[in-house]
Amino acid sequence: MKKLSLILALCWMSFAALAQEKLSGKVLDAQTGDPLIGASVWTEKAGRGAVTDESGRFTLTKLPSGEVRLKISYLGYETYEESISIPYSGDLEVRLESRDLLTEEFIVSATRASSTTPTTFKTIDKEELAKRNLGQDIPILLNFTPSVVSHSDAGAGVGYTGLRIRGTDQTRINATINGIPLNDAESHGVFWVNMPDFASSVDNVQIQRGVGTSTNGAATFGASLNFQTDTRQDEAYAEVQSGVGSFNTFRNTVKAGTGLLNNRFAVDARLSKITSDGYVDRAFSDLKSFYVSGGYYGENSVIKLNIFSGAEQTYQSWWGLPESKLETDRTDNFYTYENETDNYQQDHYQLIYTGKIGTNWKTNLALHYTYGRGYFEQYREDDDFASYGLPDVTIGDEVISSTDIIRRRWLDNDFYGFVGSVNYISDNGKLDFILGGGANRYDGDHFGEIIWARVAGDTDIRERYYDNNAVKDDRNIYAKATYEVLPGFNVFGDLQVRGIDYSFFGVNDDQRIVDGQENYTFFNPKFGLSYEKDGKTWYASYAVANREPTRSDFTDNPITEVPRPERLNNVEAGVRAQSGRFTYNANFYYMKYKDQLILTGQINDVGAYIRENVPNSHRIGIELDGAYQVSKQLTLGGNVAFSRNKIPFFIEFVDDYSGDDFSQESFAYTDTDIAFSPNTVASAIIEYSPVENLSINWLSKYVGQQFLDNTSNENRALDAFFTNDIRVSYKVQPRFFKSLEVNLLVNNIFNEMYEPNGYTFSYFIPGDTGRELITENFYYPQAGTNFLLGVSMRF
Question: What residue stretch is flagged as signal peptide (predicted)?
Fold first, then answer.
């Protein structure tokens, strides 16, 4: 009986397996016959789904015999629905009719490079971002793009992170969201920690290296990041993403959308929470964010309202690790006070309109408002009362001039304005003209509070020991045109005028009065040529960018000695090509700076280090990147950049404590490397799919030696490093989900001990032979082998 039961069970399973059928087909554009890549194919009730490949093909497996309801949707096309009898003989061919609705690409097109623009760029789509998006910040997700070096203060990619492109730091990299400026108006930086899980609401990002095309906000002084947020989805959906990883890292994200309602309206939303203890001791992160977007989609216009916000609390790990502890205690954190935290929230509001006027014109206008507020708290041991503008405290016969203090330093700022553009394309398509610009105002309060003192004297809780305000108006107008002179041969011109009014007044944190006003007008021209033929685009361009000093350059320097603005002259030349399975990009660049601002060791009248202009410096390099599809299962990709980054001459100042009085000694240097500018940066990616729906990726990253300052001193350097990661992704279409995807990312599989960021300072002290030079290096160590595991369920 047991054997008979087993035989019957096996037979039943065999018949059940035979009853499960598959359906194959392809999805094409009804007018052109071109394949539609990424179309969503779904069988209702049967619960099977697929996405079309690069040939527009799809395959649905494990379908029950009988009638199933097939639904196929694609952005900008009418949804296809039909009942299909299973089994179905042959291939199904579906041709989708385009829907005459205005798409959202024009929202960002004015500030982006196109296929004919003669500059160096790379566009990363949502699918590519999602492959690495397991809760780490955007700089980590972009780590494998050309010439990028990313870093993390806490060592694990969550919390305070940053990136450099061609050795250029975040303060010189312009960032926009839907064409709206993101950089802080005063520091010029971007604080990604204020935007946790923002990548989950990004449709694509374009990275332009070099000056690039005219954009809004801060000058592109090395690169620009142009983000477009999620675009409309025609079908209703819900998605849950959960993840866990090393260092008690947890990530939970919920997304939902209505799809297109009444063929005109759509609402999308996201809610995220990410927590991590960090690799560095006590460097925890507690991050929350949301994103809501509602839109009206007409035949000739789109109106969108985006609201997104991020709130963060992180334990500070800004101090870094002393060189003496690199081998013995890599996770040590200088801070020990339990509430040594950074606390900040930033809310963004965007109202965007884009529309068509006739057949030749498109317009775009966006109103925006950003509200940011928060503080970082610090415990200060034995601080002088004078540092806080307070008198000494007398108790009996004892005069106390210092005490332990807990302070908070606050930012409370508003940023608002508008950006817009109008685009004309001639009937024959030869002329593409854009006129755009914007006007924005920043109004920021800076103040500090004493919330506790061991010896308080005549002070009140939350007494402000400094308070100042800054107002910055930033206006720009630009005109861009591309004209096809001959078939495939295009001429490009881009002229921008940018005006800045910056005023500041009050008492700074070092107790100095900082009252001043500066005004700038910059002219930033760009010209270039491109030639397209046989799948290749050859290009060459010359561009100029001018950049005003940052807030600290104004407040730390005496007002009568404000640094000069920086200027960059940029030449780019290269080729972009796609031929069958092989795509590649190769380019040469030359970036010549005038009056670049660098730290030289020079101090101001209260001992703070200031930046000074160096007359000349330059970057010159070659960048190569490409991908080759060896077979349907195997793809090889990678990029490499070789560069020389030099300062012909500058003077370093070193503090001297060896004598009776403090002084500084100067040293002249010639032909030295620009700080944090490795001569070689390379990445390699191998993607292998042994079976359907399973993808295995090997990711490698090499970064050459970097110097911590501009002296090219081997004792003030970051060692070269080579890291390797493995990513495994498996995606299925269960009966009750549109898709279920599991992603495992194992970072640094060979446990490389490396540091991509740090700082240094030197000084003289008395020694046996008169005086001794002491150099102190501090590093930000990154985690050894660690993992992130994520599960995504889409309904």
Answer: 1-19
Between CA 588 and CA 542 the distance in angstroms is: 12
Question: Taking the CB of residue 266, how many other CB atoms lie within 10 A of it?
Answer: 20
What is the second-level CATH architecture of the domain 20-96?
A: Sandwich (2.60)
Check: CB of residue 253 under 8 Å from CB of residue 232: no
Q: How far is CA 449 from CA 287, 335, 375, 553, in A?
A: 25, 20, 10, 24
Backbone CA torsion sign across 322, 328, 330, 332: negative
Question: For 568-621, what is each residue's pLDDT tens digit?
Answer: 999 999 999 988 889 999 999 999 999 999 988 887 766 678 889 999 999 999
Nearest to 63 by CA among 38, 88, 82: 88
Kindly state the percentage of the chain with pLDDT values over 70: 95
CATH topology of domain 237-794: Maltoporin; Chain A (2.40.170)
List the chain domain ranges.
20-96, 237-794
Dist CA 328 CA 511 (whole Å): 39
Contacts 24+ apart (CB under 8 A), 249-257: 249/135, 249/156, 249/158, 249/274, 249/275, 249/276, 249/277, 249/788, 250/274, 250/275, 250/276, 251/134, 251/135, 251/197, 251/790, 253/197, 253/200, 255/200, 257/233
Q: What per-residue confidence (pLDDT) applies to 101?
A: 58
Single out the residue of 547, 550, 549, 551 nearest to residue 504, CA to CA.
Answer: 551
Strand extents, DSSP E, 508-550: 516-533, 536-547
Q: Which of 776, 216, 211, 781 is nearest to 545 (CA)?
A: 211
Check: CB of residue 704 under 8 Å from CB of residue 683.
no
Q: Beta-strand (E) ranges in 604-657?
A: 609-629, 634-656
Amino acid at 382: D
- Using a 10 angstrom Cβ sphere, with 0-12 exposed, 13-18 middle and 19 or more buried, the burial of residue 183 is buried
Q: Has residue 15 got a pLDDT over 50? A: no
Residue 561 corresponds to which tokens in the numbers above? Answer: 């000695």
pLDDT of residue 475: 97
506's enclosing H/E stretch is strand 489-507
Separation of alpha carbons 763 and 771, rounded Å: 10
Pairing state between β 265-276 and 120-125 = unpaired
Distances (CA, A) of 308 to 107, 265, 418: 17, 19, 17
Between 683 and 67, name the one with better pLDDT. 683
On the question of a common fold for 20-96 and 237-794, the answer reads: no
Q: Name, in order, each residue with C-beta under 8 angstroms of 646's C-beta and a sequence gap of 6 or more.
A: 617, 618, 671, 672, 673, 674
User: Is the per-residue pLDDT at 20 higher than 70?
Assistant: no
| Residue 525: closest CA among 557, 570, 561, 558 | 570
Mean pLDDT of 756-764: 95
Task: Give residue 199's pLDDT.
Answer: 96
Task: Tell me which of 239-243, 531-535, 667-671 is least confident.
Answer: 531-535
- Asked if residue 603 lies in contact with residue 557, where contact means CB atoms within 8 angstroms, the answer is no
- In this predicted structure, the answer to whether residue 7 has a pLDDT above a threshold of 60 is no
* 1, amino acid identity: M
Span 630-647, pLDDT tens digits: 998 999 999 999 999 999
This prediction's pTM: 0.88
At residue 607, the pLDDT reads 66
Contact 480, 109 (CB under 8 A): no
Distance between first and last Cα of the chain: 44
What's the pLDDT at 315? 96
Give yes or no for a contact between 350 and 365, defined as CB atoms under 8 angstroms apart.
no
Rounded to the nearest integer, the mean pLDDT of the chain is: 91
pLDDT for res 45: 61
Contact criterion met (CB below 8 Å) for 702 and 754:
no
Contact 302, 353 (CB under 8 A): yes
